[in-house]
Amino acid sequence: MDEQKKQRWIDRMRFKYRLIVYNDSTFQDVGTYNLSRMNLFALFALGLMLMFGLSFVLLAYTPLNRILPYSSDEDTKREIVQTALRLDSLEYAMQVQELYYRNLRNVIEGKPIEDLTAARDTTVRYDDIAFTLSPADSLLRLQVETEEQYNLTNVNTNQDKKDFSSLHFFPPLNKGLVVNSFNAHEQHFGVDIVAEANEGIMAVLDGTVISATWTLSTGYVISVQHEHDLISAYKHNSALLKKVGDNVRSGEVIAIIGNTGELTTGPHLHFELWHKGVPLDPENYIIF
Known about the structure:
Layout: H1 2-14, E1 16-22, E2 29-36, H2 37-61, H3 74-109, H4 135-148, E3 177-180, E4 191-194, E5 200-202, E6 207-215, E7 219-225, E8 230-237, E9 239-240, E10 247-248, E11 253-256, E12 268-275, E13 278-280
Antiparallel strand pairs: 1-2, 3-4, 4-12, 5-11, 6-7, 6-10, 7-8, 8-12, 9-11, 12-13
């Protein structure tokens, strides 16, 4: 009995129906179509597949995917970040330009010239800034120092001041406070400078970017090769604005100050200056 019902159901699915289309005004036969229920199901399934396929193509390969809340467009996010950084650099350039015209007026009127780098930010309480190493930092430093005790490739830490009187070093930050100075005996081959968040970091000399990367200990790092075998390194940045091979000018913004990496306890710049593989004390050549 069940087999008979099944066969009757199959027969009904395959049974042909005639669909006749008439002209509503003249009642003329326009077209005749022979369809079964199975044909209708097949056409309906094909229509659904085409609709889903078209929707996928529109959402995957057209700008419509940006309206979805779960869409992850890395290019769009990168453009937003780069635009914000350009706006910050433009704001700083406008401040420099405004200061330039203001100083021109001061020269004409016989007034003192304002210095953009000499002004100290009165809104920041530098005495309250705590720049201490965490237990993890201390353990890591101890581990590195222990490993380097028997390393035959340790750099020469001779700190006789080199003669670079022909060079004019540009300070890497407009406003900053040195909280940790150079100390070769403690393997601290640079200076730590605290400044406001999102402060632009500038190249100290003309040169070419030879490294723009990220490390676990020092976060985003950028290094610039200069004349006279000098290399400057800028560490713990929140963002890098230049890539390897870019030529930079003295005073050009190349990164944004940050707090990336493990060896840091707050927004600051760790700045290093090297000459022929030997670390130099930056405070001997730059007024921060």
